[in-house]
Amino acid sequence: MQSSLDALKSILDADCLLTDNDSLQQYGKDWTNNYSISPLAIAFPKTTDQVAEIVRWANKNQVALVPSGGRTGLSGGAVASNHELVVAFDKMNQIENFEQSTQQVTCQAGVITEQLQQFAMDNDLYYPVDFASSGSSQIGGNIATNAGGIKVIRYGLTRDWVMGLTVVTGKGDILNLNSGLIKNATGFDLRHLFIGSEGILGFITEATIKLTRQPTSLTVLLLAIPELEKVKTLLNLFQKDIELTAFEFFSDKAMEKVMKHHNLPRPVESEAPFYCLLEFDATSEEIIERALSCFESGLEDEAILNGVMSQSQQQADELWKYREYISETISSRKPYKNDIAVTPDKVSDFLHKVDSIVSEHYPAFEVIWFGHIGDGNLHLNILAPEDMEYKDFISACEKVNPLIFSELQKMGGSISAEHGVGLLKKPYLSYSRSEQEIAYMQGIKLAFDPNNIMNPGKVF
């Protein structure tokens, strides 16, 4: 193997192959905490050609490969536990081309999400895919998991912004997919096979991303809600008159923890079991008046207890903290996370069923709910009791999963809305995908990766 690694060094630039233990531990994992880390080495390619040579080397030497982007994943999709070579895209971080006329930008896979967002702003444009890890997640990883985030209700998923891809397949072939075309009716659009594929077909090395116009006056409403059923009522009420850019939901327990941890004041006078945060682009006084009219209707119908509307961008940013700070606030409690989705009309019923399941089986566990209610994406966070061994806590949560996922299956939902399958959700894939679907997926992987070297053991 040492001679093989020496051959790999000749493919890469100097100092782009690391084998020290600190690097192995840093680059061989993502944000999940419950997997052992044991990669062979960490490779840092700088070009698509180097990635292709790495893949060919891996096929020749029968070495498995694991992709590593910003390592912000929550499903174990970037974990290297079995002496795989980790291919880290940190050095493929260049924005390579920008066409003002088409509002398309081509960048390497290692470009940080926030870097692309800033590039768009510098050119008076907007990249709307946004989430808590935008400061460290990479574009390639976003595409490989079809990342969603907080603005899906208005702008859609990562998939909706990818106009072209350059990928390296499991055979080491380089494919240029769609090349930024708006219209292309020439058979299968293989670009969409790689979006959300979690690196099991091949590695994304470059992407052509479309941008859009900047919103001019993003305004936030934070509402106190008396009961869960009113969330659907409010979503329908506001969507009827306003084009929302976000519609978020969180529980009172989430609110209390954020206020305590960050020393924030209570944003509205009324305490409530649930809160909603709405965002919209107030491009005119008419839109503001419509929003206020909806708010007043909500008060009259007792769907809203109280609320506050931002009067400036600074105030909007301050209100967003109550939602965006939740994950960071509870991270020290090592929450067991379930990232799940149902259609928005089924959210209330599903939340009630899951609360009932957790309360019945684990009454001592603390549950924190939040999510992107406008697209039916819910984040269930069960907090580890401080006096309980973490492995026992994980085991207990895994026993509840089949009960939760059975309810999800009945409602036609997804076991993973935006975090991917990876290792964490792999045992439960059949709750969202039929036996026939999984067989076709396995057949597709075999076509692109016949030697099973691309992120093996993930998804299925």
CATH architecture of the largest domain: 2-Layer Sandwich
Portion in beta strands: 15-25%
User: What is the third-level CATH name, the topology of the largest domain?
Assistant: Uridine Diphospho-n-acetylenolpyruvylglucosamine Reductase, domain 3
**Strand order across the largest sheet:** 15-12-14-13-17-18-16
Largest sheet: 7 strands, antiparallel
Concise overview:
One of its GO terms (molecular function) is FAD binding. Helices cover 35% and strands 21% of the residues. It contains 15 helices and 18 strands.
Written overview of the protein:
By secondary structure, the protein is an alpha+beta fold. The protein has helices spanning 2-11, 21-27, 48-61, 113-122, 139-144, 152-155, 191-194, 229-241, 252-262, 285-300, 313-324, 326-330, 347-361, 390-410, 435-448, and strands spanning 17-18, 41-43, 65-68, 85-88, 95-99, 104-108, 125-126, 162-169, 174-177, 202-210, 212-213, 218-225, 244-251, 274-281, 306-309, 336-341, 366-372, 377-383. The protein folds into 4 domains: 2-88, Uridine Diphospho-n-acetylenolpyruvylglucosamine Reductase, domain 2, CATH 3.30.43.10; 95-213, Uridine Diphospho-n-acetylenolpyruvylglucosamine Reductase, domain 3 (2-Layer Sandwich); 218-327, Alpha-Beta Plaits (2-Layer Sandwich), CATH 3.30.70.2190; 334-436, Alpha-Beta Plaits (2-Layer Sandwich). The strands form 4 sheets. Strands 15-12-14-13-17-18-16 form a 7-stranded antiparallel sheet, with helices on both faces. The protein has a 5-stranded antiparallel sheet with strand order 5-6-10-8-9. Strand 8 and strand 9 form a beta hairpin. Helix 1 runs antiparallel to helix 3 (48-61) and helix 13 runs antiparallel to helix 14 (390-410). The longest helix has 21 residues, at 390-410. The radius of gyration is 23 Å and the shape is globular. GO terms for molecular function: FAD binding; oxidoreductase activity. Residues 35-214 form the FAD-binding PCMH-type domain. This is FAD-linked oxidase. Its cofactor is FAD.
